[in-house]
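Translate sequence into structure tokens.
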Amino acid sequence: MPAGDGASAYGEPSFGEQGGKLSYGSYLRLDQLLSAQAHLSDPPAHDELLFITIHQVYELWFKLILAELGDARDRMMAGETYLPRLRLERCLTIQRVLLSQVDVIDTMTPQDFLQFRTNLAPASGFQSVQFREIEFLSGLKDPGFLDRFRGLSDDQRQRLGTRLAEPSLWDGFLATLRHSGFAVDSREDRFAAYEKITHDRANYGLLWGLAEALLAHDQSWSLWRARHVLMAERQIGTKAGTGGSSGGSYLRSRVELRFYPELWELRSHL
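Result follows.
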């Protein structure tokens, strides 16, 4: 049968002949997705829908970032360089979207936020399990978060515990260096490897590119933290966070954190 009559040239079903078994909405489960924005304010505050939507979208992006970073880590542990860099570059593009989403939140005035903010306590962005998973996977591991988190389910606690125990992206990068013949057991070994790589990009360009992709991931996350501080201070000033944190001062204490301090220090040795 010709492809135009209902079958492809390779005998596979062509588009349009699935008998209505699958639709755009059913594939994306839009009924469930679009019914997940439930107001707590009564009567509903206009900007609460904006607030809920932004944070739900963040969590969807976090899920994708975790999948990409996890694959990059696994491939680096096996000594790969090309696909891990592509995964990191995709995450960087997503992280630029995350940064720009803060501009959408900034369209909400402090007065409008106050119409429903008290309903949020004690919930807080501090409790985003996926955000902490990204930090742990990226190399910024802090077991204390498991004690400070409120309302963790058994599954969430297990996920965070797994992230703490498993190799990070930094472990993956060091594994890639080992696969390339470099010693990495000591700080001196690692900086000797960095020096050779940085001064011989003709032979080690893939390793250099991977290191730069890790640094860009680190920088982008730091930029998001800094932007988040300004957004929070614009909305609530010096008020405490809904989860009980000190608010802006806590967020500012996180801005200078780095996933890969040795890659930043390397700049001083060039």
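Note: The chain has a mean pLDDT of 89.
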